[in-house]
């Protein structure tokens, strides 16, 4: 289905690594809906991923390397993007997250603090850097939209999510705090989407992912929101139909966040008790 929802709009997509990445799906849908895009990721991720395939699919979108923790890289990214577009930018997707502690299976209670700092810098402070650079360079048009991807572990305890939970909590706080300033300054809106557990490359690396993916599926009245559905929701926030939505953490999780317990979970627990009793 094509509504040309983003016709004439120009945006930067962070974090498209491969077909499972949410950034990848957003890039595909944004292009399909009429947007021009620039793709970006850290140089090492560009070497490891398939982003050139995606760029070709997205009308030969420019690919501009940028480490989201590097101010010079971000300044170069925004400058080159504006040159490619011939003007300012209308939307940005922040789909950036990585935890060395998770990758190295270091428990939360035994955290390596150097790794922890990297988690916070890459997964949360990078949003602040993106917004600061964009604001100082006056790179975003009025009524532009910035969306960052989050997860409910920012509010609730999911032990296997490790220090990424703290990073997501900080990410959401930055969206609120910077959204206030950017809204008054330039009418730019900043929101986070708290997505269902999604089998991306990063998400699947979290300990116990398969178990709580299945748990969320049974807990959510609508089931888990897919990556494709997440992309559609992002597009709605990039569009002019959500001009007055800002500083929000928006749950896109099939109702998981508002459900105390579900009948499928009760049934499963009842059967388990009968078997074990």
Describe this structure in words.
By secondary structure, the protein is an alpha/beta fold. The protein has a single domain, classed as NAD(P)-binding Rossmann-like Domain (Rossmann fold, 3-Layer(aba) Sandwich), CATH 3.40.50.720. The chain is 46% helix and 14% strand. The protein has ten helices and six strands. The chain has helices at residues 22-32, 43-48, 51-57, 71-85, 100-103, 113-136, 164-186, 209-219, 227-238, 263-276; strands at residues 10-14, 36-40, 89-94, 140-150, 189-195, 249-252. A six-stranded parallel beta sheet has the order 2-1-3-4-5-6, with helices on both faces. Helix 1 (22-32) packs across helix 9 (227-238), helix 4 (71-85) packs parallel to helix 6 and helix 6 packs parallel to helix 7 (164-186). The radius of gyration is 19 Å and the shape is globular. The N and C termini lie far apart (51 Å).
What tags apply to this protein structure?
6-stranded parallel beta sheet, 10 helices, single chain, alpha/beta, Rossmann fold, 14% strand
Under CATH, the topology is which? Answer: Rossmann fold
Question: Biggest sheet: strands side by side, in what order?
Answer: 2-1-3-4-5-6
Task: Count every beta strand, where a strand is a DSSP E run of 2 or more residues.
Answer: 6
**Helix/sheet category:** alpha/beta
Task: Count up the domains.
Answer: 1
Strand content: 5-15%
Basic shape: globular
Give the C-level CATH assignment: Alpha Beta
Sketch the major β-sheet: 6 strands, parallel
Distance between the termini: 51 Å
Please give the CATH architecture. 3-Layer(aba) Sandwich
Number of helices: 10
The helix fraction, in percent, is 40-55%
Radius of gyration of CA atoms, rounded to a whole number:
19 Å
| Topology order in helix (H) and strand (E) letters | EHEHHHEHHEHEHHEH
In CATH terms, the superfamily is: NAD(P)-binding Rossmann-like Domain
